[in-house]
Design goal:
By secondary structure, this protein is an alpha/beta fold. Helix content is 24%, strand content 26%. The strands form six sheets. Strands 1, 2, 5, 6, 7, 8 and 19 form a seven-stranded mixed beta sheet that branches. The protein has a five-stranded parallel beta sheet with strand order 10-17-11-12-13. Strands 14-15-16 form a three-stranded antiparallel beta sheet, with no helix packed on it. A hairpin with a 4-residue loop joins strand 15 (233-238) and strand 16 (243-248). Helix 1 crosses helix 7. The chain is globular and about 65 Å long.
């Protein structure tokens, strides 16, 4: 006999826990369960500062069991198949869980093996990445011990979580090189698959000034395709000229390609790319009224950030409750997202914008300017807001 759950939330990360907390606080007496195999939960936005030597990775980690809201069950297993039509989820333990309502908050899949030479060499021979808890400390090792040559940073052609992160660490590296007196011997190269440094012109203008300040060689439409550690070569595809470009590196910070989780690509809920296909305002599935989704695994056409999830979670919880109770869905999400763009130690541009790429700023000053106060906000206040507010359904 399969287990039956009234509201099943697939994923216990930022999105899943935030929605679970709001459903628990609603006081409707719902039977809610979170399905997630992870024993640990990470505040990943701080990994930029860990990689830059300005934070400890241990401070980004919590036990998942301590974050599950009271009254919500935790099924410590992973989803391997979702059958939306029959309202069933199969877990990696071989169980089948039936649901009345489903919230998909499964995050994004980091495809380390998508670049030959990366997975097996990450964390050694000058190959680092802030996108892994296990390797983030090695990023700082590479940066602080750098003496001369090519320091390469990459941004892939796929959607990624925190679109600004690939360049944030580059700016911290540039300042560290200057502080250590090796900047004159450093050639910083940024291979970015996009045709622009940032999608919102107001903030892009400031970032280009930072690039110029540090004499960074930005190579647009360059997508990393392979690493050759033996010869310390990075193979890029110049998407504009459709040709291969080989760049030698002394250190390389890789932002790996990412995609929708494999089990969503196989499901009947995803679009062509595997992202759960939801209405961009209500977060309800376009074809299955019993399903909602939010966060990185969704089709929402906005940057995949924790700040976006903070605005999506209340809408998802509100509309799910309305659907359960047979009421109209009145919650609306406007695409708000935020990217705290670290441009150096004690310097940050707080980019906030909506679906139309129009700035939607919180503070009564020009947030495109580099500010120390915004850096302190990222380092000290946002983590507290995350652990004590967002994951508790309070913010």
């Amino acid at each position: 006999m399969k287990e039956q759950v009234q509201v099943l939330i697939v994923g216990g990360g930022s999105a899943g826990i935030s929605v679970a907390a709001r459903l628990a606080k609603a006081g409707r007496g719902l039977d809610v369960a979170v399905l997630d195999p992870a024993a640990k939960h990470y505040y990943q936005p701080l990994w930029t500062l860990v990689g830059g030597g300005d934070a400890r990775k241990e401070d980004t980690e919590r036990d998942e069991k301590d974050l599950i809201p009271a009254g919500v069950r935790w099924i410590q297993e992973g989803a391997v198949e979702i059958d939306g039509a029959n309202r069933e989820v199969t877990t990696d333990a071989g169980r089948t869980i039936g649901f009345e309502w489903l919230v998909v908050a499964a995050g994004i899949q980091v495809d380390w093996k998508g670049i030959p030479g990366l997975a097996e060499n990450l964390g050694r021979e000058g190959i680092c990445s802030n996108y892994s808890y296990d390797s983030v400390d090695y990023t700082w090792e590479c940066i602080r011990s750098f003496k001369s040559g090519n320091a390469v940073f990459t941004h892939p052609a796929t959607p990624i979580k925190c679109g600004g992160a690939p360049q944030k660490i580059m700016y911290l590296a540039a300042e560290t090189f200057e502080k250590n007196g090796v900047a004159k011997d450093a050639n910083i190269i940024f291979g970015i698959a996009s045709p622009a440094i940032f999608a919102v012109e107001k903030y892009a203008k400031t970032l280009l000034e930072v690039v110029e300040r540090h004499h960074i060689d930005v190579r647009y439409k360059h997508d990393l395709r392979e690493l050759r550690p033996a010869s310390r070569e990075a193979v890029f595809r110049d998407l504009g000229a459709d040709r291969e470009v080989v760049v030698n590196y002394d250190m390389i910070h890789v932002t790996p390609p990412m995609s929708a989780p494999d089990f969503l690509k196989r499901s009947d809920l995803g679009n062509a790319g595997g992202w759960v296909d939801v209405d961009k305002h209500t977060l309800r599935h376009v074809a299955n009224e019993r399903v909602f989704a939010l966060g990185d695994c969704s089709s929402l056409p906005t940057s995949k950030t924790g700040a976006a999830i903070r605005k999506q979670a209340p809408v998802c919880a509100e509309n799910l409750l309305a659907a359960i109770e047979g009421r109209p869905l009145t919650g609306r999400y406007d695409g708000y997202t935020s990217c705290p763009l670290v441009t150096g130690y004690g310097k940050l541009v707080l980019a906030e914008f909506d679906y139309d790429l129009k700035p939607q700023e919180t503070f009564p000053f020009d947030q495109s300017k580099e500010r120390k106060t915004m850096y302190l906000l990222k380092k000290h206040l946002l983590p507290k807001l995350y652990w004590g507010g967002m994951l508790k359904g309070r913010a």
